[in-house]
Amino acid sequence: MGLEPSKENFGSLADVIDRLLDKGLVINADIAVSVAGVELLGIKIRAALSSFETAAKYGLEFPSGTKLSTPAWQEALTAKEYCPQCEKKVAIADLMSDGCPWCGWISARTNPLNPAIKTS
Questions:
Q1: Residues 80 and 56: beta-carbon distance below 8 Å
Q2: Residue 85 located in a structural domain
């Protein structure tokens, strides 16, 4: 019985972009042009690509004039976790108390049908 070649399924472009924005990407580059040991030109490039939520999580600075008091920012700053069933991001408080709004997953802590968990 020989090994059969298989193709890995890496997902769509949307999956790649979602992962990139979720985790973020930072590029740091220093370029120097020197002649005979004398630096003639120095360029420093710092670039970050991420969602605002990820940037806020890691403390990156935002442009001046950014209004952090808007409802969208408050939503972005809410602690979130991945649902163990559908892997969508849901606020931790909602996930543990109400379950996942996307797939209906319910935590064992809040499941009234689970006799091992006693709520008081």
A1: no
A2: yes
- Does residue 5 form part of some domain? no
Residues 116 and 84 in one domain: yes
Domain that holds residue 47: 13-63
**Cα 70 to Cα 92: distance, rounded to the nearest angstrom:** 21
The pTM score is 0.42
Q: Is 71 among the domain residues?
A: no
pLDDT in tens, 41-78: 989 888 888 877 777 777 777 778 878 788 877 777 77
Given this model, what pLDDT does residue 113 score? 62
